Each structure stands twice: as C-alpha cells, then as structure tokens.
Amino acid sequence: MTSTDHATATTAPTVVVVGIHGHGASHVAAARALAATGAIRLVGLVDRTFTEEDRAAGDAPLRDSLEECFAAGRVDVVILSTPIHTHLDLAVAALEHGADVLLEKPPVTSNDELDRLQATAARTGGLVQVGFQSLGSHAIGEIADIVAGGEIGAVTALEARGTWVRTVGYWTRAAWSGRRTLDGTPVVDGVVTNPFAHAVQTMLRLGGTTDRAAIATIDLDQYRANDIEADDTSVVRITPQRGPIMTAALTLCAQETTDPVVTVHGELGSVRFHYTRDEVEVVVDGVTARRWTTGRTDLLPDLLRAREAVRAGEDAALVSSLADASAFTAVLDEVRSAPAPHRIPADLVEWLGTGDDRRPVIPRIEELVAEAAATGRTFAELGTDWARR
Length: 389
Fold this sequence. Notes:
This protein is α/β, with parallel strands linked by helices. It has helices spanning 3-11, 24-37, 52-57, 66-72, 87-96, 111-124, 139-148, 168-171, 197-206, 299-311, 326-337, 365-375, and strands at residues 14-18, 41-46, 62-63, 77-80, 100-103, 128-130, 155-163, 181-182, 185-186, 215-224, 233-240, 246-251, 261-266, 269-274, 279-284, 287-293, 342-343, 350-352, 359-361.
C-alpha cells in the first residue's frame, strides 16, 4: 500500500449497515459500490442472522449488534434498514456515538419520536438523512420551476395514485408486517406509511408542505382486505394552512401493479411525476406537451457530501432531512392514533393464487383510486359499497 492509499484508507468515512436483508440488501450493495472506489470503508454488517452468502463475502465483519461495531472502532456513518419500531433507539444510539445516520423510511412512529430524534441530532451535531429516495430526483426542482414559471397556471390541487399488488407472503414475512403495534409498541405499518410512503412524502414536498405546522387538517379513510391490523387500501386528504388540498388514494389490492404517480394540477394544465422512474410529463389542454426523464442524487453519497460540507463550514443541506419529514410524520401520527382500518366484507373481495402467493383483489379498485385522487373525495364520500359510513 502506498502512502496515498494508506491516507485514503484511514481518512475515508467508515460505514456500518444495520439490517442487511430484504430492502437492506440494496443499502449493502450501495455501500459496497462506494467502498470499491475508496470513497468509504465498510466496517460492519449487522443482522440477527447471516446466510452462507453473507459469510462468504468477507468484505466486512459480521456483527450481532450495532454496539459491537462501536466497540470495535470508529464508525462515521450508520445505515439503518431495520423494522420501523426499532428506528428511534438505533438512530439515537448512533448519534450519541458521534455517527451520522441514513435512516430508512418511515423514520419514526410518532411526532413525539421525531421531536426526540431531532433534539438528539441537534445536540450531537449529527446528520440524519431519511430514506425517501424520490426526494433525490432532480424532477423535484424541475417541477417546482415549471410551477413557478406559470406554465400550468395557478396550482389547484395535488394528488397521488398508487395501485400495487401484495401477496399474503408480503404480510407474513416478518412479525411486524401489517401491524399497528407489536407487543404494545407502535409499528404503524400499512399502505400509507410504508409501501406508498414515498408517494405521500413526494406529494407533500411538491405541495410545499414539509413542516407539520403547515397542515390544517388530515382526513383518513382506511380499509383492509387482508387479514392484518394495518390498512392496505386508503385515502388520505391533507388540507394545508395555505395552498391547495392534497389527496393520496392508495391500494395494495389491485388487479395488477402499475407505476405510482404524483400530479400537480393547475388551472391551465398539470405536471405528472412517475417517481419510481424519475419521469416527468407536462400536460396542457389534456395533451402531453412533453415528457422526459431526470437524474437522481443518491442518498448515501449526498450524506457523505453533507459531512464534508459540515467539516468545511459550508452548506450541509440534505436531500431528505429529518425536518423535511415533519409533515409526513404528522400523517403517520394520524394513522397511528386513528381507529383501526375497516374490514372490507369478504364477499366483496376476490382472491387469486395459492399459498404465500395468494392475494386479494378489490373489484374496480383502480377506478375508485383514480376517482378519489382526482376529486379529493374519500371512498366513503364516493359511496363505495364497502366503505365505512
């Protein structure tokens, strides 16, 4: 190793990934890609169990706990991809040990927990990037410029539509899946707060509502076709203190999975954002005027950039900060404290598949989602036959 190589190895930020399976595997892959360039050193992979493939990789120590990583040496960045209800304690522990954090969404399970985490970050000086990848899309800024330029006229409403398929196996993959609480601890899993959290958060960001103080009311209309505690089909209507109403209509009981879309409606046209593929579409007078795909800033490199900015005394604004998650967490907190989702009668649900691949389909749900999102009305207000009166 040359002296330059040694300096890079010793000064590159050290990174630990906690929760390396499921979605966590994508974080491991991202960390390994950066480690291959010398941008970071991957110094720990933490999980409750490890596969033979994990053990064979040999590129980082396998640890049973985050505390073991701290005991073994310096940890600069902790990536947390663990069950929702574990986020707060692990993030606080990382910050208290002087690390910065990349925290999967949803960040916490209540407004109170967000306040505690923000206070810890402020006291320790640590950075917390929340795992809303869609906020890294360059489309966010480009759409803001389109709106500011007046191309679609004054904004009249925002909407988010999501129609996905999830099987029984999705809800049985872990003890916390589909739970409102687990052993008395809030989990707040469900279609609004987890699978389509990006849709809700992106809608809030495009609507200029990131602080919970900017929200006047949150209306929920929540249902479940699956045998779970949480919602799998819901409408969320958010009325800000100022500005247009935002409505998200979401289901995991569709006939087939389609790409979710967040739309900004104006008096003259609209802008559609297909956030999973960074595609923007401007529609004027009902006709697509233009469509393009933007770039995206990945969350881990952005966090590393912000770390360097802090050291240099420069602007350390994050793509997806804790403060930016305030309004989203208010929606989550409303879900947490709301009555349990209404069970859709079994005779109004069709079931397809067998075993873990079995899944419910709510007839006409795609049409209902589209109508709810477009009109800003809940399923109940639409007079849906299975809706709670």
